[in-house]
Amino acid sequence: MKFSLIVPVFNTEPAYFHECMDSILNQDYEGEYEVILIDDGSTTDIGRICDWYQQKDPRIMVIHQENRGVSEARNEGIRRAGGEWLYFIDPDDWIEINALSSAAAILWKYSPDILYVAYQEDLPNTSTPYGYGGAGFQTLDIMDKERIGLGLLDHSYNSLPCCFGSVCTQFFRVEFLKKNHLRFLPQLRRMQDTMFNLYFLDATPSLGVMDQVVYHYRKNPQSICNRFNPAIQEYILEFNKVLYQYIQGKSEDWARAFEFKAARNYCEILRLYYLNPSWNADRKQKKAQWEQLIRHTAYARYLGKDSYKRILKKSRGYAAILFLTYNIPSFFLLGCFWKAYKRIR
Questions:
Q1: Which residue spans traverse the membrane (predicted)?
Q2: Beta bridge partners of 5
């Protein structure tokens, strides 16, 4: 059984990248595996470090490309994959030494198209594992697939305790991906994994979970995903548009799950842009742009005066933010609540 490990790389911190590569190259798996490093137009020395690894180990292939984003980097990895099973790893995270051998034992025995694995969030002083609440291997049925899909948008729908959102917690049968032409959407710069997950859930006939920590996610409050980002509104509006198109014709549950996801994404726009302390624009300018967002973009269709009522049981914080946005609306009060909300979270 051969694995293809896909690692997209862009200006990664070298110390983190070395830790990632050490965990990959020191696997106790006795079978065959390849490592495909996709350097997505890095402007630091990380591309040269990738080449050094390729010279050091024949299992490593390095692809240098112009910067096209993580979706296209992963897609290139899928195209190049020569193994039977594919696994994505982010370059600042790492995997357990027995990741491949443990997965191989399950894949040989049960042969699902997709195998979910448990993961662990790691901060400098604490770690939190996330599993599936069972032992060993579980097969997921069609109802589980529906709940997982809805749970990607609204966690209250998912009966299993682990998060299914990241592709780094899944082993994929390469033949299945290629047969169904499954790829990441290149126009998405945020939440690419969510749409990829939804598309393969529609296509896959067999899913399974292995309740064993395989992946370590380095949770960094200072990462690019947590910094002031003037482009975040554009990124999220594009994601919302794709997701809204996806749910058309589906049940009312999908409409309600979408509403929750849209609310959550709206809060992300506030966090990283409108109410971020790093934005130095005056309040009048911020207020004018915020009013444009809620009144003259797709958010005027996605959310409204009654949204807070449906969100309330799931998140009082989100409900309050929606009430201040669509029922008053007041940018000043929204900012005051946001500061208080951040302190009590």
A1: 317-338
A2: 35, 87
* Domain of 314, in residue numbers: 227-344
Dist CA 198 CA 139 (whole Å):
18
The 10s digit of each residue's pLDDT in 9-63 is 999 999 999 999 999 999 999 999 999 999 999 999 999 999 999 999 999 999 9
Q: What are phi and psi of 111, to 5 degrees?
A: 50, 55
Q: Residues 235, 198: one domain?
A: no
Angle ∠(302,147,221) on CA atoms, nearest 5: 70
Token digits of residue 8: 């997209």
Sequence-separated (6 or more) residues with CB below 8 Å from residue 50: 9, 37, 39, 62, 64
Q: Work out the percent of the chain whose per-residue pLDDT is above 90.
A: 83
Domain boundary among 218, 235, 251: 218
Both tokens assigned to 6: 């896909």
Main-chain phi, psi angles of 306, to 5 degrees: -95, -5
Average pLDDT over every residue of 295-304? 94
Q: What is the dihedral of CA 105, 106, 108, 114, to 10 degrees?
A: -140
User: What mean pLDDT do residues 327-337 have?
Assistant: 95
DSSP state of 45: T
Residues 315 and 286 placed together within one structural domain of the fold: yes
Q: Per residue in 178-217, is it b (16+ CB within 10 Å) or e — as a string? A: eeeebbbbeebbbbbbbbbbbbbbeebebbbbbbbbbbbb
Give me the sign of the Cα torsion angle 154, 157, 162, 165.
negative
Q: How far is CA 65 from CA 39, 62, 77, 241, in A?
A: 6, 10, 12, 28
Write the pLDDT tens digit of every residue in 98-154: 999 999 999 999 999 999 999 999 988 899 888 887 767 888 887 788 888 999 999
Rounded to whole angstroms, how far apart are CA atoms 190 and 196?
12
Q: What is the CA radius of gyration of the chain?
A: 21
